[in-house]
Amino acid sequence: LVDSSDISSQVDSGSDQFFFSMPHVSDNKFGKFINLDDLDLQNRLLMEMLFSPEELNTYMKEGFYGSPNIGCVALNEFRKSKDFEAFRSAFNSSEDRIFFIGSIFGGTGASGLPLFVSSIRDLSHADNMNAGNMGCAQAPIGALIVMPYFSIEKKDASPIDDNDFIIKSKSALRYYADNLNKYVNCIYYIADTDRPKSFENDPGNVNNQKGNKAHIVEFIGATAILDFISINADDLRTTIDSNGRQIATRTKYKQYSFEHETSQLTFEDLPSSTNSLCMMPLMKFYLLKLYMNEYLTSRLNTPFASKYEPKIESSILSRELKSFFNRFEKWIDDMQQHGSSAHNLTLFSSPIEKDLTTVFNGVQPRKRTFGKKTLKISDLESALNDSAQKHDKMQNQFQRWFTIADEAFGDAINDNLIIEGF
Fold first, then answer.
1. How many other C-beta atoms lie within 10 A of the C-beta of residue 171?
2. How far is it, in rounded angstroms, from Cα 327 to Cα 331?
């Protein structure tokens, strides 16, 4: 689901990325959107009974202020949009799957999930059917339903009150039981009752905040997409109900729990399903960031950089890559700063000089004849030199560097640290 700030974004017609634009929504107050002033007295009184003055005056570019009753009306623009038509045309029924993510304790996600899913499943109805619609209507659909996982500060002037989060979630779940679940092949539920310290209550980002801190619920939620992709296609089939709409042959329901309950979560506290997806990529990327930021440009005379073609040069550490590394570091910091009463993801520790043995929290070194192994910068460079011999004459320095770094850092981790069993 698009964030409210992206409602007016445009479709990128040069690629397969779609940002659904709804200018009639984003440029209006809700009352104007429904033409309140042009209605006859009877219908106007009806609208004023259904919607409060605050809701009618909601400027929708800033979102729906936690009001799904506004969202379900405003987002109906989606069904008749040219963007949805373009999406249907681009959909590849032999390869593509559709995955929705929506928080259900607010307005946009709670109202958008059932509307968007039903819009797709309705394409098989006789009134909507054409040659380009059936494949999309039968698409494997997954959905991540995000329930409350944070608190916000109290503010009398704000229409948002986190005391309403649970009530809104229960209402949405009751509605979804009859009007959403049967149309979705796999539903993932996630929430966190151990809330972090309160975020700022700033609807519409009036104070230009940079956003809430990254949270473990968002990280875990992202892994649901990878899980959905891995499900066998035979388990994601649809059939037609009595109304001519596609429904899931069988809806799967999935939840998430930690291996160990603690406020400081390390690799050993995450379930094996998460570690099998993310552990090695995260560890390798952390080493990549560390080595490129602190060592690579001073090691360009070593064999892995200078002996093979194309040579690795200082330009490999581009401004864009530095910026991405900075965002990764901020993500790491954010995830471990939610307070002692919350779940903090503390996967990494700072290295002790050139010793990297303890940088991966919860991961132990392998044993050797006497004592235990260590992971040091010298081990990374030895593995880089070994890998470089197998990857000479590549297309460019970027392809060669990231190929050998991926292989070498994986080998160094496997040789020195115990990662089996996670």
1. 15
2. 6
